[in-house]
Amino acid sequence: MAEQHKKNEKNFLVQGSILAIAGVITKIIGVIYRVPLMNIVGDEGMGYYSVAFSIYTVALMLTSYSLPLAVSKLVSARVAVGEYKNAYKVFKGAMTFALVAGGLVSVLIFIGADFIASNIMHLNLSAYALRVLAPCILVVALLGVIRGFFQGNGSMVPTAISQVVEQIVNAVASIVGAYFLLQAGKEMAKAHGDNSYGPALAAAGGTVGTIAGAFSALLFVAFIFLAYKKVFRRKMRRDRSRHKESYKRIYKVLFATIAPVILSATVYNISDFVDSAMFNSIMAAQGYKETEYASLLGMFQGQYSTLINVPLSIASALAASLVPSLVATVQTGNRKQIHNKITTVGRFNMLIAIPCAVGFLVLAKPILDLLFFTQDNSIAALMLQMGSLSVVFFCLSTVTNSVLQGLDDMITPVKNAAISLVIHVISLFLMLVVFKWNIYAVVLSKIVFSGVICILNAHALRERIGYVQEKKKTFVIPTIASAIMGVIAVVIHLIFELFAGPYIATVVAILAAILSYAVLIVLLGGITEEELLDMPKGATFVSLCRKLHLIKGEYR
Fold first, then answer.
1. Is 0.90 topped by the overall pTM?
2. Is residue 472 packed enough to be buried (19+ CB in 10 Å), middle (13-18) or exposed (0-12)?
3. Alpha carbon of 482 to those of 358, 366, 468: distances in Å?
4. For the ranges 277-281, 315-319, 374-378, 489-493, which has the lowest average pLDDT?
5. 89-107: string of b/e by CB count within 10 Å (b at 16+)?
6. What is the per-residue DSSP string for 82-142?
7. Please, what is the Cα angle at 31 between 30 and 32, to 5 degrees?
8. Residue 394: pLDDT band with limits 50, 70, 90
9. Taking every pair of C-alpha atoms in the chain, what is the biggest distance, in angstroms?
């Protein structure tokens, strides 16, 4: 039994690591393609792009975002007890929901694009990008169901590979689309006497990649599903369970699971939409031109958010891998195992989030100058430094949200996110209207939002299952190691900048930061030999650490 538990724990970490690695790869691709995309569309174009995406994100919350988690949760609960026929019914029910909800919202967004852009977001020309994104809502809904089915069966590989495929196609199609539609926009600008048509159509071209990437990923997972369907049918034939759920029961359970996740995800992620709408309205009321606040929003989305989202993708991946494993453990009723799983994910999250936050704090301008070398990155760099703390809070809140949902507590995350959103809106309003902090108000209010969610979720976990996150290895040691790493990175950058130039100095400083942090975290005991062995290629890491005398004692 102990061996089986250890095997399950190792598989859980491996699957989480696979998804996390895919997440990092996709974000790296995202950062790389954003450089030429930013150069093509410019700050104003990125403003239109970000506004369209904030609407698109809300639409995904209502139709698609909940599906991978909900399907994964319901399928894994049935697979864990051998109810393969019921698990397949969940899949078919979710596909029906995706077709209806995704199709309906896609049509509404496409038809109402002009009204939304003009009357809600106060950026009329963002309607072009929004209209291109509308069909993608249906595609992503179908994609989410298939990904959730595989995750519920304990495999993150189809999701991981499809994410990489999606991002590669997205990158190529976005750049090509932005370039060609920019030319068309310039012609429209001449005809209408408004230079904003160029950036607006370039932004629409950039969104072409989103739908092209999502459709490519859908084709990939659909092909894998058809191949796996034969295997799953054999499992269904061996299903001797007497518990046969009707489709009425399946739809009832599906909606009961999806609705709270939709509410939670919408409230949790709607802050981008609220931020854009409030920022544009207040900046317009304060006398700023549309092109000015569109440019500021473009910097926020194009430079700040692009980097912040890299560590957040790892948190999302680990959280996604946690839910099926946690659901299966909850079935056993073993509270110690539940606590261990939560602690493991929380710790690995902070091992990545804290050094990323410190890295953004000390190397914000050099990193942005290296990536976006044609832009003036002064404002974006200050945003990144001010918002670095939100990386830690958002990573932690993402995991705690998934933990509560995995424990079948679907209402608490909704309530906590709603409370946090109200506090966030109040703080954003005060920062914009009273203090007039401009785009920095958006950055600082996000720290408030994510910080409040962390506090409320931590309290909920303590009340529900008596769980309190371990402090020393989760927060203290990574913070100490990150602080030392930050000093090393700054010193290395200063030295190399003198004779090698700023770009080489930045690359060397980042590499030095990664190496020094890895050494420090092992030396200070932030990660143990057993934990290293549970990771992919763990034995290789342990062997290397022993050669460097970072781990003492006999190899086991």
1. no
2. exposed
3. 6, 18, 23
4. 315-319
5. bbbebbbebbeebbbebbe
6. T-HHHHHHHHHHHHHHHHHHHHHHHHHHHHTHHHIIIIISS-GGGHHHHHHHTTHHHHHHH
7. 90
8. very high
9. 77
